[in-house]
Design brief:
alpha/beta, single chain, Nucleotidyltransferase, domain 5, 2 domains, about 25% strand
């Protein structure tokens, strides 16, 4: 007898996966693909959308024909900040442009000027000025540099909804994709920003992220979701399973601190400190802050290992030592060794004096003390004045760093801090959404002491 499963396409910038969840939301199959990047029509690197299109269609057909699995539903979790343009016949017009592609400053500046200035525009759209990462600016760029292509646009889709469109042929938008630093959404009025109307952008009215369609493939009826932005998807398991208000720290190259329970409006000062808003599956703002944690850790670690002539992965052998952490704080009395002084300064010093330390263990503990301070600053930015959050969940790479977890736990003694081991969290969120399930899940929690 075939096993009933939900299929999720989890499409990141580096890895593309198909993950199958059974009725208990356990992973029963995971297939990973890596597609080499190609170049767009300007010679800039981008995802090979043609290969992705073929992969999605062919792999879904193969799964429907499987002798092992009975595919009941399909959904898509992808990276955001990317748009796809369709002509009147529903054909894609351009490559999927890389959100790191440079944009002339005059394009966003003209928009800011007409809508209250840069600070007010960014505050109202909850989007720090990030160039093409503000995906709403991408159509304006296209209109400026390729007007003949822009004139053919009938529909504009966010990337998750385009992947869904490949299967359903339906045009949709939904709130998690609109709300991820796109500069499209007016968070004051919870609607598209007036500039999108003034520029006649062909954006679909958003539907709930739980929206589905029935599609028949090779005689098999499937429920197909409209897609979801991966960061918002990663929150979904915690909405269904967490007791009380929580804050999620998703760590890796970036540390993204997401607070779905902070209803205070984003301020210009918070924007300047790298805060933004996502949108949750419940269509509410998720105040978030960012820190380049993994990158800073890697840069500081290289300086330490070079100085002490140790292997790059030596730090993994260093045991968390609370007494050493405390003694370093007492000895240095607030002095920073690795990072420049000043509130919210996140730059490494040009000269770092490691002769302060007798051992690599001392140096690494101090690096983590300082990275912990930067993380605590970032977390504090998304805690409201009347904070009622009870739990902090740490996921990703730094959830395995005992020293980091101890520092965060000590900084927030009134909260319970947990590491959470959910494999494929974004895909799991997409599966929960398309299934309509409110099931309580095992979040893989371990209390940090």
């Amino acid at each position: 007898m075939k096993e009933s499963v939900i299929a999720i396409y989890d499409i990141g910038k580096t890895n593309k996966k198909i993950i199958l969840f059974n009725e208990d939301f356990r992973v029963v199959s995971e297939i990973e693909e890596k597609f080499p990047e190609t170049i767009d029509d300007d010679g800039f690197e981008c995802d090979d959308i043609e290969r992705i299109e073929v992969w999605v269609r062919e792999s879904l057909f193969e799964m429907v024909s499987s002798n092992k699995y009975d595919i009941k539903a399909v959904n898509f979790a992808t990276y955001g900040a990317s748009l796809v343009y369709l002509d009147e016949f529903g054909k894609r017009l351009t490559p999927v442009y890389n959100y790191l592609k440079p944009i002339e400053e005059k394009i966003p500046e003209s928009l800011y000027k007409r809508h209250g200035g840069r600070d007010e525009f960014c505050r109202r759209t909850a989007s720090p000025a990030l160039g093409m990462l503000n995906s709403g600016l991408q159509p304006l760029w296209l209109k400026t540099v390729k007007p003949e292509v822009y004139a053919k646009i009938k529909h504009i889709l966010h990337f998750p909804q385009y992947i869904s469109y490949l299967i359903t042929g339906k045009i949709y938008s939904e709130h998690t994709s609109i709300g991820c630093h796109t500069a499209l959404w007016d968070f004051d009025n919870m609607n598209y920003h007036p500039w999108t109307i003034n520029h006649s952008l062909n954006l679909p009215e958003p539907v709930p992220v739980e929206t589905t369609n029935e599609v028949i493939i090779d005689g098999k009826k499937l429920i197909v979701g409209v897609g979801i932005h991966d960061s918002s998807a990663s929150l979904a398991p915690y909405f269904s399973s967490s007791k009380g208000n929580f804050l999620l720290m998703s760590t890796g190259t970036w540390c993204i601190n997401m607070n779905p329970f902070n209803t205070e409006k984003l301020t210009a000062d918070q924007l300047d400190k790298d805060c933004l808003c996502y949108m949750s599956i419940t269509r509410q703002p998720v105040k978030s802050s960012r820190l380049f944690l993994g990158h800073l850790h890697e840069a500081g670690l290289k300086i330490i290992t070079d100085h002490f002539r140790k292997a790059d992965d030596y730090y993994k052998k260093i045991k968390a030592d609370r007494k050493l952490t405390s003694s370093l704080k007492a000895r240095l009395n607030g002095k920073k060794v690795f990072f420049q002084t000043g509130p919210y300064s996140r730059d490494l010093k040009e000269y770092i004096d490691l002769y302060e330390f007798n051992t690599i263990e001392e140096a690494y503990h101090q690096l983590m003390n300082e990275l912990g301070d930067l993380t605590i600053e970032a977390v504090s930015l998304v805690l409201p004045q009347n904070d009622e959050s009870e739990n902090i969940y740490i996921t990703g790479g730094f959830s395995k760093n005992e020293l980091f977890c101890n520092i965060i736990s000590n900084a927030f003694p009134s909260k319970m801090v947990f590491t959470s081991e959910i494999a494929n969290g974004s895909a799991l969120g997409a599966a929960l959404v398309v299934s309509g399930s409110q099931s309580s899940l095992n979040l893989g929690l371990t209390r940090c002491r």
